[in-house]
Amino acid sequence: MSNSNSDKEISLLATGDCGPVHGPEDGIPIERYSELVRPTFAAADIRFGNCERQYSLREAAPGADVHGCASPHMAKIFTDCGFDALTIANNHMYDHGPEALLDTRALLQGKGIQVTGAGKNIDEACQPAIVERGGIRVGFLGYCSFIPKGGTAGPDKVGIAPLRYHTQHEQTDYHPKGLLTLTRVRTEPDEHDMQRIKDDIAALRRQVDIVIVAFHWGVIWIPRVIADYQVAVAHACIDAGADMIVGHHTHVPKGIEVYKGKAIFYSLGLFCMTKRPLDPHGSWKEPAWVHGSLRNYTDLDPDYPLMPYGKDATKSLIAKAVLTKGGIKRVSFLPMMIDKQYRPEILPNGDPRFDTIVNYMNWASDGFNHAFRVEGDEVVITGSSG
């Protein structure tokens, strides 16, 4: 291969939610979480993910979400994995308030990790993370659809870069006499947020060779379902100049789409997460679970008491892309599962679980333009005619 920049290729790995809260005080060395994936990460040129926790020693404010903030020493997982850039645009990045958000941003930057998605004001929250390798510049942007009350960044306000959406309920008769009436929930992106995101992409496009946009969005826990606004936003971002879209938040992997030759990962699932029980008995008491709107779609897995996100939460992906100066040459995913020690494990071809993930992703991606081709231990993604 020629050493000229035009011929240079680099590799990117992108992951979903990361933020285990159980550490040495619970008998779990932080190094254990990443021990199975570190060799794969070390071989990549750029590593990007979602930092799902605040890291601060500040006391929780009244009414704060106590599981969303961890001690700063728990952030070691990001350096153990060698992350180069992270989005901090997610629903837990305001759990202990604005000061803890800024503490988290400063802590990660102090570790040499580029950060996007939240900051001291909306301009800083929308600043890209830019990483250069081998003369190839890669820019990342991050936005969130589920921001806690008061957590949206403003002109003079600490917060998270938003992608809000609006909801409508439509009743549709499927029988000539109206004997069967169903209600459809339709969602569409907020026009102001969407315009800002497109402007951010256009501005970043002028600075880098590759633009990757991360969204914390979607229908949590429930397999397969993707909201209308997600498709509209992903397509609009690619039309505006993005090269790849990566999503997370749902705790289960969702469909993959190829739009105009560009890959959209609607959700990569979890990378590495644990959560403290919400009550002393470890039962799930959130109203959406107790009343059945989530429980009807998934059961909790008794083998994973520290990961109460439903049985499909153990399935996951790592997105992989080969990047060049002229764009993304190849996109694939690495099938992954989380073991009973809460360690992400990349699966080799030939492991029955590898086929389980590939079949699951084909099922989850049904209806989207996609085709998967197994090459070695990777699953290459193309359009249906690619």
How would you explain this protein's 3D organization?
The protein is 20% helix and 32% strand. With 386 residues, it is of the alpha/beta class. The protein has one domain (9-382): Metallo-dependent phosphatases (Purple Acid Phosphatase, chain A, domain 2), CATH 3.60.21.10. Strands 1, 2, 5, 6, 17, 18, 19, 20, 21 and 22 form a ten-stranded mixed β-sheet that branches. The chain starts with 8 loop residues before the first strand and ends with a strand. The relative contact order is 0.14. The mean pLDDT is 92.
Determine and state the CATH class. Answer: Alpha Beta
Number of helices: 9
CATH fold category name = Purple Acid Phosphatase, chain A, domain 2
CATH H-level name... which superfamily?
Metallo-dependent phosphatases
General shape: globular
Largest sheet: 10 strands, mixed
Structural domain count: 1
In helices, the fraction of residues equals 10-25%
Rounded mean pLDDT is 92
> What is the CA-atom radius of gyration, in angstroms?
20 Å
Distance between the amino and carboxyl termini: 25 Å
Task: Please state roughly what percent of the residues sit in beta strands, choosing from under 5%, 5-15%, 15-25%, 25-35%, 35-45% or over 45%.
Answer: 25-35%
Summary tags:
single chain; 386 residues; alpha/beta; Purple Acid Phosphatase, chain A, domain 2; 10-stranded mixed beta sheet; 6-stranded mixed beta sheet; 20% helix
